[in-house]
């Protein structure tokens, strides 16, 4: 077979050109051609002839034929050819067909080098997946690294996750270690903030025994810390320790501040010490976080120690660190150290900011160091900072609390001139100060300014009124109340009642009546206790014009007890019922669950009043009904034939006398009519009432012997005493006048009708002619 091919450049080549004849079909078989092949020049002369040789079979041979010589296919040429095919066809069946027709046998080195050149991630994946189906494929860490790098650059994280799944299956099936690829995937996903996916890949890598490097741990911990999941980051840190992975400087720089800021100070301190033992130099961020966290946690000694250690290492504290230290010491009340740090901060060239000025001023003011607070306050103004309302308020309130009126008013005026609006607490403190100093006019001016600022002033005005009431400055309280009324400021009924009671206590009955009328007209209810307290003043009253005022005040209460009192002193024709029935009807209308104590108080005072007015029979009716309603359930005790007793320790003087007479009358009926005679009879009086009861009974020659707190006698002696006519007259009619006078003296000596609140004021002289 002859090939008529003439090369015009045959003289330029040492070897002939082999150009195939279109008429010849090559057979890719293992045998050799038997025909002779002749190569002719332009003139037709034979240049060369020889046997044909089998051509290279793609995919099987790793060489090319140059004439009859085998020539190894260079790696660079193979890589270039693969890259050319991949760049042209990119992906799909056509790409795989072209790769199958390569004139050489590829290997993993060719694929790896080609992946370095091909930048298209889809084309790279197509080439990689074609290679995986070849018999010569072997898993390569470097190959996976380049694939993951390309996918990360294109931000195709879904493809990264999919390829990672292939990596897991491949590494588990072939028992190969692809540590670098595992770590690279986790790092890429962590830096891309793919929280769940990165942690899932991390767990899978751990399950397959993959060795996680320090950078991967760092990236994961940083991700969880940035996502505000410090405890998950600490879990990864514990995994890092359990895996025996050594911490590097960056891990320390990452974990110590995170542990400190999350409150795990002991763990942070432990790592800090470990870092120094391993000869790592802590950075400023570690010192700053530890100083700040220890200070905020109250570990001031540790915070200061770390601060001094930082200075010793040559690091210079920042303004933020100074602020943190000063704030911690100021809040802990260690103002001397805070002030020293304040001076160090200024000496270091840092200018205190607005917040630091405010904090240091307020902390000194609240601790009572007003001189230092005022000095720094002036320094703040000179530095060009305008103090906030809170700073003004703190200083003003502390000056007010210390009673410095001039300084407080100066600060208030300065605040108003600076167009700052004082807070409610500031006004309250200033008004309280002015009230305590009894500066009524100034307080009224401040209150009206407070109203112009838009505040509701009713409560503040009532607070000032309460200050005057508690202080006993009744005239100032009445003057302030008059100002409130003229300014349209309302007060509450509680304070009106307090002022009314203060007026009553000080004998200002004319001023008390309008207050009570105002109290009643504002729909407030006069309870039984208030009515009884007014009645008690009437009992103690010794001046006729005051009695008229008190009677008018009692009428102004509009309480049902006053109607009862008026009816009690009228005749049976006007009442249309006997006294006992009238008294029972009134006491049946009392709610004893709510007013039992008040009813007991009322009975004590009422009996005092009735005895003083000489209304003994009415008084005995009141005592009888009170005992029937169990207001004094333990007063009388019948212990069959052993002992009978009467306990009057909790009664007023008048009630005690009536109780003794009425009870002895009951004892007399039992003993004379029923023949029951006890062994002994006791009258438990207590030390106060013992005198009046003993002297009253001695006037009728009673057999009772006086001891410390008890009057006692045998039953037989009392039986004989009851048989005397004078005793019968004494028990049935009235108390002798001598005892009445004595009772009146004791009532003046103990002016309160409620025995539990008796006072020891000196006795007033008994006015001659006072009717009993």
Short description:
With 772 residues, the protein is mainly alpha-helical.
The total beta strand count reads 10
- Order of strands across the widest beta sheet? 6-7-8-10-9
Q: What integer value in Å does the Rg equal? A: 55 Å
Proportion of residues in extended strands: 5-15%
| Global shape | elongated
- The oligomerization state is single chain
Round the mean pLDDT to the nearest integer and report it.
77
Give a verbal description of the structure.
With 772 residues, the protein is mostly helical. 63% of the residues lie in helices and 5% in strands. Strand 4 (63-66) and strand 5 (69-72) form a beta hairpin. Helix 15 (319-331) runs parallel beside helix 17, helix 19 (389-401) runs antiparallel to helix 20 (405-417) and helix 26 (509-521) packs parallel to helix 28 (544-556). The relative contact order is 0.03.
What descriptive keywords fit this protein?
772 residues; mainly alpha; Serine Threonine Protein Phosphatase 5, Tetratricopeptide repeat; 3-stranded mixed sheet; 63% helix; elongated; disordered C terminus
Task: Provide the fold topology.
Layout: E1 2-3, E2 36-40, E3 46-51, E4 63-66, E5 69-72, H1 75-89, H2 93-100, H3 108-117, H4 121-132, H5 141-153, H6 157-174, H7 179-191, H8 195-207, H9 214-226, H10 230-242, H11 249-261, H12 265-277, H13 284-296, H14 300-312, H15 319-331, H16 335-347, H17 354-366, H18 370-382, H19 389-401, H20 405-417, H21 424-436, H22 440-452, H23 458-471, H24 474-486, H25 493-505, H26 509-521, H27 528-540, H28 544-556, H29 560-568, H30 572-575, H31 579-588, H32 592-612, H33 616-628, E6 636-639, E7 643-647, H34 653-674, E8 680-684, H35 686-698, E9 705-706, E10 710-714, H36 715-722, H37 725-732, H38 737-749
Parallel strand pairs: 1-2, 7-8
Antiparallel strand pairs: 2-3, 4-5, 6-7, 8-10, 9-10
């Amino acid at each position: 077979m002859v090939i008529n091919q003439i090369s015009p450049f045959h003289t330029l080549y040492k070897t002939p050109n082999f150009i195939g004849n279109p008429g010849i079909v090559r057979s890719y078989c293992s045998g050799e051609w038997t025909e002779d092949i002749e190569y002719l020049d332009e003139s037709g002369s034979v240049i060369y002839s020889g046997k044909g040789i089998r051509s290279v079979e793609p995919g099987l041979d790793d060489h090319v034929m140059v004439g009859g010589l085998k020539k190894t296919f260079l790696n660079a040429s193979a890589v270039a050819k693969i890259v050319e095919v991949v760049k042209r066809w990119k992906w799909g069946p056509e790409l795989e067909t072209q790769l199958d027709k390569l004139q050489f046998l590829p290997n993993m080195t060719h694929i790896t080098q080609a992946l370095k050149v091909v930048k298209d991630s889809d084309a790279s994946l197509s080439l990689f997946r074609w290679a995986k189906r070849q018999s010569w494929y072997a898993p390569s860490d470097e190959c996976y690294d380049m694939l993951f790098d390309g996918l990360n650059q294109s931000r195709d994280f879904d493809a990264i996750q999919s390829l990672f799944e292939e990596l897991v299956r491949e590494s588990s099936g072939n028992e190969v270690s692809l540590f670098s690829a595992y770590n690279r995937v986790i790092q890429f996903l962590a830096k891309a903030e793919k929280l769940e996916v990165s942690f899932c890949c991390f767990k899978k890598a751990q399950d397959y025994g993959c060795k996680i490097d320090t950078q991967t741990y760092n990236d994961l911990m940083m991700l969880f810390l940035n996502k505000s999941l410090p405890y998950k980051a600490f879990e990864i840190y514990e995994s890092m320790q359990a895996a025996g992975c050594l911490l590097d400087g960056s891990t320390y720089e990452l974990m110590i501040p995170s542990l400190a800021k999350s409150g795990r100070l002991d763990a942070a301190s432990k790592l800090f010490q470990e870092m120094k033992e391993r000869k790592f130099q802590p950075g400023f961020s570690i010192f700053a976080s530890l100083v700040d966290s220890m200070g905020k946690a109250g570990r001031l000694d540790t915070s200061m120690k770390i601060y001094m250690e930082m200075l010793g290492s040559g690091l210079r504290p920042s303004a933020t660190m100074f602020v943190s230290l000063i704030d911690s010491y100021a809040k802990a009340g260690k103002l001397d150290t805070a002030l020293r740090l304040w001076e160090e901060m200024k000496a270091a060239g840092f200018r205190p900011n607005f917040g630091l000025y405010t904090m240091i001023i307020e902390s000194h003011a609240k601790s009572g160091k007003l001189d230092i607070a005022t000095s720094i306050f002036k320094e703040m103004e000179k530095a060009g900072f305008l103090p906030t309302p809170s700073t003004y308020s703190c200083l003003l309130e502390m000056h007010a609390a210390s009673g410095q009126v001039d300084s407080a008013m100066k600060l208030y005026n300065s605040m108003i001139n600076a167009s700052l609006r004082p807070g409610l607490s500031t006004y309250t403190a200033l008004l309280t100060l002015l009230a305590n100093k009894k500066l009524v006019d100034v307080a009224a001016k401040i209150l009206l300014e407070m109203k112009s600022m838009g505040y509701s002033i009713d409560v503040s005005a009532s607070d000032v009124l309460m200050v005057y009431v508690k202080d006993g400055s009744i005239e100032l309280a009445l003057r302030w109340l008059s100002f409130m009324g003229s300014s349209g400021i309302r007060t509450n009924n509680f304070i009106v009642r307090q002022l009314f009671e203060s007026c009553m206590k000080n004998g200002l009955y004319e001023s008390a009546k309008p207050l009570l009328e105002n109290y009643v007209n504002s729909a407030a209810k006069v309870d039984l206790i208030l009515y009884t307290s007014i009645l008690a003043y009437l009992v103690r009253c010794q001046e006729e014009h005051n009695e008229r005022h008190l009677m008018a005040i009692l009428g102004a209460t509009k309480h049902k007890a006053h109607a009862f009192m008026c009816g009690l002193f009228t005749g049976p024709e006007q009442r249309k019922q006997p006294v006992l029935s009238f008294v029972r009807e009134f006491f049946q209308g009392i709610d004893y669950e709510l007013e039992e104590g008040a009813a007991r108080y009322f009975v004590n005072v009422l009996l005092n009043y009735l005895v003083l007015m000489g209304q003994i029979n009415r008084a005995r009716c009141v005592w009888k009904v009170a005992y029937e309603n169990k207001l004094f359930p333990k007063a009388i005790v019948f212990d069959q034939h052993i002992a009978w007793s009467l306990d009057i320790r909790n009664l007023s003087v008048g009630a005690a006398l009536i109780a003794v007479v009425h009870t002895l009358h009951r004892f007399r009926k039992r003993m004379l009519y029923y023949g029951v005679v006890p062994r002994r009879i006791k009258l438990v009086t207590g030390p106060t009432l013992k005198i009046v009861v003993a002297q009253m009974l001695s006037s009728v020659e009673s057999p009772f012997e006086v001891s410390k707190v008890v009057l006692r006698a045998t039953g037989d002696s009392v039986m004989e005493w009851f048989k005397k006519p004078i005793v019968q007259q004494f028990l049935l009619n009235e108390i002798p006048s001598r005892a009445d006078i004595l009772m009146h003296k004791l009532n003046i000596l103990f002016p309160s009708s409620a025995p539990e609140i008796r006072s020891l004021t000196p006795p007033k002289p008994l006015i001659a002619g006072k009717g009993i």
